[in-house]
Amino acid sequence: MSAKKSAGPSPESIARSERQRLAAEDGARAIADVERRAVDIRKNMARLRELREARDEADANLRASSPVPAPKKRTRKLPR
């Protein structure tokens, strides 16, 4: 009993290759989406870092320009 192979691909192999092609396209889209989100996150982190550094610098300048008040002397309470 010898079975001849058909000249064309079987319907199962066609369906399998179609599923693989769709999976590869979905994977490529998912990777591109992850990379795009990573770029957006890095941009936002840089923006927030600049804001934080500017705020810290302004606070340091404010502390440096305002005089430090002398500590108040404590007084003892006398017993009655």
Descriptive account of the structure:
- This protein is mostly helical and 80 residues long.
- The protein has a domain at 13-64.
- It is 69% helix and 0% strand.
- It contains one helix and no strands.
- The protein has one helix at 11-65.
- The mean pLDDT is 89.
| SSE order | H
The count of DSSP E runs of length 2 or more, i.e. the number of strands, is 0
* Overall pLDDT level: 89
Q: What structural category arises from helix and sheet content?
A: mainly alpha
The fraction of residues assigned to DSSP E strands is under 5%
Shape: rod-shaped
Q: Helical segment tally?
A: 1
The value of Rg in angstroms is 36 Å
Helix fraction by DSSP (H/I, runs of at least 4)? 55-70%
User: Distance N terminus to C terminus?
Assistant: 121 Å
Ranges where pLDDT stays below 50 over 5 or more residues in a row are none
Largest sheet: none
